[in-house]
Design a protein that fits this description.
The chain is α+β, with helices and mostly antiparallel strands. The chain has two domains: 217 residues, no CATH class; 147 residues, Heat Shock Protein 90, CATH 3.30.565. Helix content is 68%, strand content 10%. The protein has a five-stranded mixed sheet with strand order 1-2-3-5-4. The chain is elongated, with a radius of gyration of 30 Å. About 2% of the residues have low confidence.
């Protein structure tokens, strides 16, 4: 068997997996299906061209020009597809490339010095290392990294610049002027660069994650303050409802007195006064005063936008964990309100459902959204600061749902943004 074939196969294996790693971490502005089709066709063609180059000119020659034959074309292609631009995209792209280049450099050195340069150790180690990298990335990195892209707006430039310089530095150290295995005098600096990159990437993600935690803390504090003020205001409405209910006895006595003395005209005038008083009351959507207060507030806000709003609230008088449920409802309805403000009046539609379905309490908030907005199920969309569309507060909703042994999903469907929250029924009973 031609052992050099193992080296070529391992290179193809690495090219395929760097593509998978990048797709795992980047956010496309197109649907998942369309993204995979475009990426498969374009990157497949690019990989075939690079494979042909490897066959004709060899690994050492292609390694020197790989940045021009593969890196730059794939960068431009995915930049057109990406929902993120500038530094966030650059960091994601360079992160995937340098991680895979790091594996290729380390396995190349291990094979040469420990495997006798027969490419058997190189092939086996790469066969294991690339799927292992993807598993670890999916298991530990993907979710917080996507959340970072959603929430952290600043500080990406310096990290993107570091990863880009590392890519160039690794390429130079590993392939210029010849492959590193033929330059034993450069072995120690190369190993130090490989180690430094590993620790620096850890520093980068540690710094970004601290920003995320700070953002979460500030957001939660602000949300809790707003909800405290909102609930205090809304509970005043509940006091008004209870007061008028109490006054109904007096109204009844007065009406009875007027009718018993034959004062029909005065009774009708009094009834009109009572009707006017009752019209000033907020609607009653459910028995829980805190949850009802949230519905009342946002129903009024949506009515001010001339929104066609349908409310289907089917919960009883059971004692509910209103703090978490109010967080979920307030953030979800605020997102809907912000999205509907950007639409023409004729397009403003929303609906809210809250009901039990077997073992779950189901909350669904559905509203019309921009036609260009596309959200895959299971992916939290980014916040659009200019348009203030969906995304703000969704992380808070998800965390509140998980505290109640549930989960949250959001997606777009037929011009609507849909927020689904499922909570185990036993978790909602205090």
């Amino acid at each position: 068997m031609n052992l050099s074939l193992l080296k070529d196969l391992s290179v193809f294996w690495g090219m395929f997996h760097v593509l998978l790693l990048f797709i795992m971490l980047f956010r496309s502005r197109y649907t998942k299906k369309k993204t995979l089709i475009l990426a498969g066709f374009s990157m497949g063609t690019l990989m075939l061209l690079n494979i042909a180059g490897l066959v004709f000119w060899g690994f050492d020659t292609m390694g020197k020009i790989f940045i021009f034959t593969c890196t730059i074309p794939s960068f431009l292609f995915f930049y057109l597809l990406s929902a993120d631009k500038k530094f966030r995209f650059l960091l994601t792209f360079c992160l995937a490339d340098t991680s895979c280049l790091w594996i290729m450099g380390v396995t190349n050195l291990l094979d040469y010095y420990l495997g006798g340069g027969q490419y058997i150790l190189l092939f086996i180690s790469r066969l294991i290392a690339f799927p292992l990298l993807e598993y670890c990335s999916y298991r530990f990195l993907r979710k917080p990294y996507l959340e970072l892209q959603n929430t952290v707006k600043n500080g990406w430039g310096i990290f993107a610049g570091m990863t880009m310089l590392y890519y160039i530095l690794l390429t130079v150290m590993l392939f210029y002027p010849v492959n590193i295995v033929y330059r034993p005098e450069d072995l120690l600096p190369c190993i130090l660069v490989l180690l430094l990159m590993f620790f620096n990437y850890g520093t980068i993600f540690s710094a970004l994650y601290r920003q995320l935690l700070l953002y979460r803390e500030q957001q939660n504090e602000r949300i809790l303050q707003e909800q405290k003020y909102s609930l205090e205001t809304q509970l005043e409405n509940q006091q008004r409802i209870r007061k008028i209910k109490h006054d109904m006895k007096g109204y009844t006595i007065t009406l009875s007195g007027l009718l018993s003395t034959g004062k029909t005209t005065e009774a009708l005038e009094y009834l009109e006064h009572v009707k006017t008083e009752m019209d000033t009351l907020p609607r009653q959507f459910c028995a829980n005063p805190y949850i009802n207060a949230v519905f009342v507030q946002y129903y009024q806000k949506l009515q001010e936008l001339d929104t066609e709003c349908r409310m289907e609230i089917r919960i009883g008088e059971e004692v509910l964990p209103y703090m978490e449920l109010c967080q979920i409802l307030s953030n979800g309805l605020e997102n809907a309100y912000n999205a509907l403000k950007e639409l023409d009046v004729k397009d403003r539609e929303a609906s809210v459902q809250m009901k039990y379905n077997r073992d779950y309490l189901i909350i669904r908030i559905k509203n019309r959204c921009r036609g260009a907005l596309h959200v895959e199920k299971g992916v939290i969309p980014p916040t659009d600061k200019k348009g203030k569309d969906h995304g703000f507060g969704l992380i808070t909703i998800q965390e509140a749902a998980k505290r109640l042994d549930g989960d949250m999903f959001c997606y777009t469907e037929k011009g609507n943004f849909i927020l689904d929250v499922m909570i185990r029924a036993e978790s909602t009973i205090l």
